């Protein structure tokens, strides 16, 4: 069986398609040789050998030795040098390289093949003893460190000793004799470590190969695969590349560099890179000397520079993507040592994809596939640069609930936050154990929100995401002492007014004030890419919006309708909440009606605003849904003032509030159950919706098709009962107004029973919308407000792969979605079906919605662009 693949001269046995067998490095080196680029000859030992090695107790296949010997002979032939010969010795580098680039693996060994004899041969051949001893000592150090595990610092000590003895600072100031002494001292370092430096080049080579294969299972590499979600068995292992050495350290007409064919930060179409004269590969990375910008090469060696630029263009055209290239110049001759698709910032990813498509190098569809939807989200929010974070003090990590970067002083009381921002435009981070609907104004005023409890769909998370505000929830490491107005973290205390910074994209909390970078918004290349996505996608993208402001933002981001308006969110401002509370605690129909009469005109205006902002696109409005406890007055003061307003005694109201207490409010008196007990609530909301639509039609001639949505239905009769009330109210109004107005009545599917009986429910419902937050809660039986405490353990112990509130559980919850859709359409073939849970903006969940044939997804405004791209990718 073939294990070794040669490249060099003008032929190569591998090519770029063979990444899984040859690793990325090996496959691309072979490809470049095929393309006729100057690559030092070499060979790749395949990843299959790595697999064999581990399957057979760290033994190699029998015929590997012969194949390696043959490959070395071939190298000797092509280069005219001889491995281990004192005449004109062949030196090689030994490099690891898996199918995906993996920083955790073995460091490269350069100059292998040097020993006391061959170094002499090198001196004879080059006439440059300084260079030869320099190469020798580098090799001894790398080999000792990487292969034999001798502490790096032992070598450094000896090098420094010689430097101070000679009174010089830089390595480059050492003479040939100095370096020769360094080599001698290194021999002792080996001895003192109980090792012997192998003089036999073949011994060196096999030990280095062992070390590369061994590094596949070292801790760093295993950790790296784990962190990057690379599963065991997904890759065969690493390949080993043995490459003829070329020397960038042979004088000022030599050097080494790295380059990107486009700017990896901005995506700008210009070369970008660094060049270090008279140096070997590792020097650039190690940061020992400061490299020049690549353009400096134009001054030093204009011809080589031109040749390099020419190669950049060719490589980019060939790979059809931005390349990250390593090169070395030996005495004015250019060699390429590596090329790969370059890593880039999200910003650059979008720009490069769009530019490449417009340059005709890739298709629009490919451009769409090249950008990750998650990256788009980060472009719409402020962010911290990696450098900024590196220099900051990390305090804790919580659940990343809403992306973006924010700094501010810690404030615990939402109304205080609101006041501080209003009066003195302070930067505030609202810190709370959890948030509740009353905190909305404070949340809106703050730069960011941090809570110590809760999960991805907790109140704080959902609201912050809607506002496009940085938010971290479930940060258990932080103890919030509301009374004392301080937080405790790792034994330290931070009082109210201390600066902190939060990264809602990663969940990190930092001490102090960090500078953030402003987002660039939806314009330029990103707007173009999303337009292309719209041309391709089949799935509609709507938004969850409760205010005209949210709706307008979402329209700008490309939403085509509102998939969920949570009417209760309209009730939380200071002016309205008393009326809402009054409605809830009312003992008599009259009391309730009085409260509803106050709310009706406000609601109508809200809906008019929403309808206007959506410019004729459909608007789905959900009737009042939340558990009542969310509205109840809790503080004595609030109860007092409400009692006054309602003209009842404090005690009476207090006992009513106590009566309304529920043990499990999420499964309590909420959703359609509220309107079934109090139909007048549904009547008021219907009047507000239909009234707004009629007025808009009469005043501005704008047509809207309101979609009235009933939450938390589990039984067809619930829907039947409420639908009749809604239809009676609406039809009477339309008739009286003498207008033509279409509207729909549909339901949320968020209780498993509704999904199971979807065929029945569809007889009444004119549309479905899967509320996957509640559906996940009820299917798993995980409380949305409490699961944050244990979901981490579930993921860590591998019981769940991911948080199911974040990524739709296709097998369980998804099955209900699929079945509900199918059953619904079996009775009503034209049934419109959407999803409005937080999953609507999560790429993998969007893909699932596409696969099961939903009509649209609905998500918070800032995730609309994410969903548009994800929907297009799902189709492609
Ligand atoms: P990494 O995967 O960490 O980039 P590489 O195997 O690419 O490791 O090598 C590390 C450094 O050594 C790079 O700068 C590379 O250009 C240089 N290098 C590797 N092989 C050779 C060689 N045969 N001749 C000269 N320089 C080399
Ligand atoms: Mg490299
Ligand atoms: Mg719900």
UniProtKB/TrEMBL annotation:
Active-site residue numbers: 459, 836
Binding-site residues for Mg(2+), renumbered to this chain: 750, 774
Domain of life: Bacteria
Requisite cofactors: Mg(2+)
Homology family: Belongs to the PEP-utilizing enzyme family.
Enzyme Commission number, as recorded: 2.7.9.1
PANTHER family: PHOSPHOENOLPYRUVATE DIKINASE-RELATED, PYRUVATE, PHOSPHATE DIKINASE 1, CHLOROPLASTIC
GO terms for MF: ATP binding; kinase activity; metal ion binding; pyruvate, phosphate dikinase activity
Keyword Iron (UniProt): no
List of residues binding substrate: 566, 622, 750, 771-774
Record-annotated PEP-utilising enzyme C-terminal domain positions: 527-874
The reaction(s) this protein catalyses: pyruvate + phosphate + ATP = phosphoenolpyruvate + AMP + diphosphate + H(+)
Pfam family, one: PEP-utilizers_C
NCBIfam families: PRK05878.1, pyru_phos_dikin
Ranges of residues in domain PEP-utilising enzyme mobile: 426-507
Official protein name in the record: Pyruvate, phosphate dikinase
Domain Pyruvate phosphate dikinase AMP/ATP-binding residues, every copy: 20-56, 60-291, 305-355
UniProt entry tagged with the keyword Nucleus: no
UniProt keyword terms in alphabetical order: ATP-binding, Kinase, Magnesium, Metal-binding, Nucleotide-binding, Pyruvate, Transferase
């Amino acid at each position: 069986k073939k294990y070794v693949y040669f490249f060099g001269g003008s032929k190569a046995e591998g090519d770029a398609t063979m990444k899984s067998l040859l690793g990325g490095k090996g496959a691309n080196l072979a490809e470049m040789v095929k393309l006729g680029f100057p690559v030092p000859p070499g060979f790749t030992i395949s990843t299959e050998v790595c697999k064999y090695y581990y399957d057979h107790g760290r033994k190699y296949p029998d015929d590997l030795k012969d194949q390696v010997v043959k490959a070395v002979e071939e190298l000797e032939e092509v280069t005219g040098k001889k491995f281990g010969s004192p005449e004109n010795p062949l030196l090689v580098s030994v490099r690891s390289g898996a199918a995906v680039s993996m920083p955790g693996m073995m460091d490269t060994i350069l100059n292998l093949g040097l020993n006391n004899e061959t170094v002499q041969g090198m001196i004879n051949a080059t006439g440059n003893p300084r260079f030869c001893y320099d190469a020798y000592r580098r090799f001894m150090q790398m080999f000792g460190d990487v292969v034999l595990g001798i502490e790096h610092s032992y070598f450094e000590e000896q090098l420094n000793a010689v430097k101070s003895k000679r009174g010089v600072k830089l390595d480059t100031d050492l003479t040939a004799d100095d370096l020769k002494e360094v080599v001698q001292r290194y021999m002792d370092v080996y001895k003192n470590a109980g090792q012997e430096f192998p003089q036999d080049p073949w011994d060196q080579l096999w030990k280095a190969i062992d070390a590369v294969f061994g590094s596949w299972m070292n801790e760093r590499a295993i950790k790296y695969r784990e962190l990057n979600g690379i599963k065991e068995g997904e890759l065969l292992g690493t390949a080993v590349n043995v490459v003829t050495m070329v020397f960038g350290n042979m004088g000022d007409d030599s050097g080494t560099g790295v380059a990107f064919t486009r700017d990896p930060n901005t995506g700008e179409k210009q070369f970008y890179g660094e060049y270090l004269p008279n140096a070997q590969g590792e020097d650039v990375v190690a940061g020992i000397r400061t490299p020049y910008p690549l353009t400096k090469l134009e001054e030093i060696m204009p011809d080589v520079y031109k040749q390099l630029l020419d190669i950049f263009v060719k490589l980019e055209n060939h790979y059809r993507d931005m390349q990250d290239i390593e090169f070395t110049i030996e005495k004015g001759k250019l060699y390429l040592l590596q090329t790969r698709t370059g890593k880039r910032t999200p910003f650059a990813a979008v720009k490069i994809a769009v530019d490449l498509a417009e340059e005709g190098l890739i298709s629009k569809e490919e451009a769409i596939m090249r950008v990750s939807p998650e990256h788009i989200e980060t472009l719409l929010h402020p962010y911290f640069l990696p450098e900024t974070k590196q220099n900051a003090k990390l305090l804790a990590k919580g659940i990343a609930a809403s992306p973006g970067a924010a700094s501010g002083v810690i404030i615990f009381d939402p109304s205080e936050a609101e006041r501080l921002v209003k009066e003195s435009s302070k930067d505030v981070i609202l810190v709370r154990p959890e948030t509740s609907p009353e905190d909305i104004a404070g949340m809106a005023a703050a730069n960011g929100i941090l809570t110590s409890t809760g999960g991805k769909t907790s109140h704080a998370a959902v609201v912050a995401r809607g506002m496009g505000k940085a938010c971290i929830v479930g940060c258990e490491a932080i103890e919030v002492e509301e009374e004392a107005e301080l937080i405790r973290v790792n034994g330290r205390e931070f009082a109210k007014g201390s600066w902190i910074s939060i990264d809602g994209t990663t969940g990190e909390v930092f001490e102090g004030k960090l500078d953030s970078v402003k987002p660039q918004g939806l314009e330029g290349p990103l707007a173009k890419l999303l337009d292309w996505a719209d041309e391709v996608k089949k799935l509609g993208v709507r938004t969850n919006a409760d205010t005209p402001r949210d709706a307008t933002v979402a329209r700008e981001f490309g939403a085509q309708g509102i998939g969920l308006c949570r009417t209760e969110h309209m009730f939380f401002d200071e002016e309205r909440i008393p009326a809402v509370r009054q409605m809830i605690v009312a003992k008599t129909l009259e009391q309730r009606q009085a409260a509803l009469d106050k709310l009706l005109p406000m609601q109508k205006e809200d809906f008019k605003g929403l309808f206007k902002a959506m410019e004729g696109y459909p608007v789905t409005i959900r009737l009042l849904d939340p558990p009542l406890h969310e509205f109840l007055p809790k503080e004595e003061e609030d109860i007092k003032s409400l009692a006054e307003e309602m003209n009842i005694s404090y005690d009476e109201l207090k006992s009513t509030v106590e009566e309304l207490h529920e043990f499990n409010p999420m499964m309590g008196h909420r959703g359609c159950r509220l309107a079934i007990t109090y139909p007048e609530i549904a009547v008021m909301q219907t009047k507000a919706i239909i009234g707004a639509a009629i007025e808009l039609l009469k005043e501005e001639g704008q047509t809207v098709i309101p979609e009235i949505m009933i939450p938390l239905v589990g039984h067809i009769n619930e829907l039947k009962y409420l639908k009749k009330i809604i239809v009676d109210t609406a039809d009477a109004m339309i008739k009286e107004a003498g207008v033509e107005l279409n509207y729909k009545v549909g339901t949320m599917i968020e209780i498993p029973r509704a999904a199971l009986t979807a065929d029945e429910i569809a007889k009444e419902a004119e549309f479905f919308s899967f509320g996957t937050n509640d559906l996940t809660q009820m299917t798993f039986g995980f409380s949305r407000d409490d699961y944050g405490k244990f979901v981490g353990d579930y993921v860590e112990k591998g019981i769940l792969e991911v948080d199911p509130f974040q990524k739709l559980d296709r097998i369980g919850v998804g099955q209900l979605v699929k079945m509900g859709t199918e059953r619904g359409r079996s009775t009503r073939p034209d049934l419109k079906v959407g999803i409005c849970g937080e999953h609507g903006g999560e790429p993998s969940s969007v893909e699932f919605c596409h696969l099961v044939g939903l009509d649209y997804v609905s998500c918070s405004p800032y995730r609309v662009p994410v969903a548009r791209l994800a929907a297009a990718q799902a189709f492609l």
